[in-house]
UniProtKB/TrEMBL annotation:
Residues 93-257 form the GOLD domain. Residues 1-23, 167-201 are annotated as: Disordered. Keywords: Acetylation. Coiled coil: none annotated. This is Protein TMED8 isoform X1. Residues 172-188 have a biased composition (Acidic residues). Residues 7-17 have a biased composition (Basic and acidic residues). It comes from the Eukaryota.
Length: 259
């Protein structure tokens, strides 16, 4: 028969009681911390200045002194309500093709007014093409002399007040983005991409991407494409020469709509 020392039994009971007490204290602290977080987040919702993306919120418990760090991106999502950004609908892919009648294409457009321009080194030219009430799709054809150029298409979900096609020139993709921000404040711009991999610099709250900016061999074949209207708005056809430090690009283009 094995004899157990009363001292060992008492020590075991003490350890068990201590462990239970620690678990109970941790549970209480967690509940108090959660209550503190809920109280602070409730106060945040009443602020006139909403937390911006990337902000960090630090909460210190009045009961335990513990500090918790919250991300405004996650914690404020349910507090923003009507201020939450809505992503634009996804764009259907365009139809794109090429054809080899380069000489005939350039000769024809060279005689037409406003069908040829020079995209200077480091510049981005954006041709703004509003949807037309009698049209159902936009079509484009373009070519360049001697060298390639970046090209991409985006869609601005904005009411159309004029069907005039306009041309905007900027020194770079970044400068163009700053101009758009001045027109309308839009938070969290998507970082500018690379023309080699597809630039996504114009993707914002009200902009849809039809095709990203890639370098096109427009000096070898005429580049052409079309896209069905997703609704009312303005197409942004971007000709990107921002990657070129030395060469200007002569651009021949034809943009029209079909019904």
């Amino acid at each position: 028969m094995t004899m157990v020392s009363p001292v060992r039994e008492d020590a075991t009971e003490d350890r068990q009681k201590a462990a239970s007490a620690m678990e109970a204290q941790a549970s209480v602290e967690q509940e108090l911390l959660s209550a503190d977080q809920a109280q602070v987040l409730s106060k945040m919702a009443k602020y006139h200045g909403l937390p911006r993306s990337g902000d960090i919120v630090m909460i210190q418990s009045e009961h335990t002194g513990a500090v918790d760090i919250l991300s405004a991106d996650l914690e404020s999502a349910d507090l923003l309500g009507d201020h939450r950004r809505v992503s634009p609908p996804l764009m259907a892919p365009p139809c794109i093709w090429t054809f080899a009648k380069m000489k005939e294409f350039k000769s024809k457009l060279g005689k037409e007014k406003n069908s040829r321009l020079v995209v200077k080194r480091g510049e981005v030219v954006t041709i703004r093409v509003p949807t037309h009430p009698e049209g159902k799709r936009v079509c484009w054809e373009f070519a360049t002399d001697d060298y390639d150029i970046g090209f991409g298409v985006y869609f601005d979900w904005t009411p159309v007040t004029s069907t005039d096609i306009t041309v905007q020139v900027s020194d770079s993709s970044e400068d163009e983005d700053e101009d758009e921000e001045e027109e309308e404040e839009i938070e969290d711009p998507v970082p500018a991409g690379d023309v080699e991999r597809g630039s996504r610099s114009s993707l914002r709250g009200r902009y849809g991407e039809v095709m990203p900016v890639y370098r096109r061999d427009s000096h070898r074949d005429v580049q052409a494409g079309s896209h069905d209207y997703p609704g009312e708005g303005i197409y942004l056809l971007k000709f990107d020469n921002s990657y070129s430090l030395l060469r200007n690009k002569t651009l021949y283009f034809h943009i029209y709509y079909t019904s």
